[in-house]
Amino acid sequence: NAHIICRTRDFCFVLNSKEVRLKSSPADLVTETDQQVEKMLISAIRRKYPQHRFIGEESVAAGEAVELTDSPTWIIDPIDGTVNFVHRFPFVAVSIAFTVNKQTEFGIVYSCVEDKLFHAQRGRGAYLNGKPLCVSGQTDIHRCVVVTEIGAERDDLALSTMTSNICRLLRLPVQGVRALGTAAVDMCQVATGGADAYYHIGMHCWDIAASTIIVLEAGGVVMDTDGSEFDMMSRKVIAASSSAVANGIAQVVQADSFLGDFSRNRA
Length: 267
Ligand SMILES: O=P(O)(O)OC(CO)CO
Ligand SMILES: [Mg+2]
Ligand SMILES: [Mg+2]
Hints:
The chain has helices at 32-48, 57-61, 82-87, 156-171, 183-192, 205-217, 243-252, 256-259, and strands spanning 2-7, 12-17, 20-22, 29-31, 53-56, 73-80, 93-100, 103-111, 116-121, 126-128, 131-132, 145-147, 176-178, 197-201, 221-223, 236-240. By secondary structure, it is an alpha+beta fold. The chain folds into two domains: 2-132, 2-Layer Sandwich (Fructose-1,6-Bisphosphatase, Chain A, domain 1), CATH 3.30.540.10; 141-262, D-Maltodextrin-Binding Protein, domain 2. It has a seven-stranded mixed beta sheet. A five-stranded mixed beta sheet has the order 13-12-14-16-15, sandwiched between helices. A hairpin with a 6-residue loop joins strand 3 and strand 4 (29-31). It is globular and about 50 Å long. One magnesium ion binds at residues 34, 57, 77, 79-80, 82. 2-hydroxy-1-(hydroxymethyl)ethyl dihydrogen phosphate binds next to strand 6.
């Protein structure tokens, strides 16, 4: 059993995870808490906005389609970092983004154990617990701390792509490569200036939608891992402190070898 106390200024509750089940791989976990948090969020939002649509990680795992339309849409990851949650590794977040006409209007990432609430609204800046955020502004890739994720895939091609990308970055060299176990919190480190870049191939829109607007509103840059325009449904992202760093990472990171049939969102 895993449990984590979630706090905000308004409420305090204990999340109990009684059952851990596997999804797409032996490292892709889901608990009752993931499902309960998603249900709680969707039902509360639906009561107020009955016409709005939802893309939620656990609803998709239960068979719902992943379709981003022009309608107002809430993109929800009820627990980003479920493996951390199960093991009590202290980086676990709730990630919520809201889009209209496929454009993100605001994003919220609540890093529960740290009690850090990141949020950003389009054109209105990014904040951590109410204080404005700003990226590091670093432009020299050799001075960067880069965050990525190991991911849940365990097949040979995915593993060799992931490890060789990390090796290529370390050989540049960059000053550090880190992985916290939650893409949402990883990307928020770029927004704080604590890290200079984040990249990953294989995250879903619910992992990165909220933190993308947080990085952008903190003055950062977001692009596809091939250097093209970012598409939150493509499962490829670089978030960086500057265009120079983002382009530097795009030149190093290779995705093609294993994206194949993997390039759309499925839970
Ligand atoms: O815990 P989740 O929501 O599956 O997300 C993981 C994706 O590997 C970390 O971002
Ligand atoms: Mg996630
Ligand atoms: Mg999740």
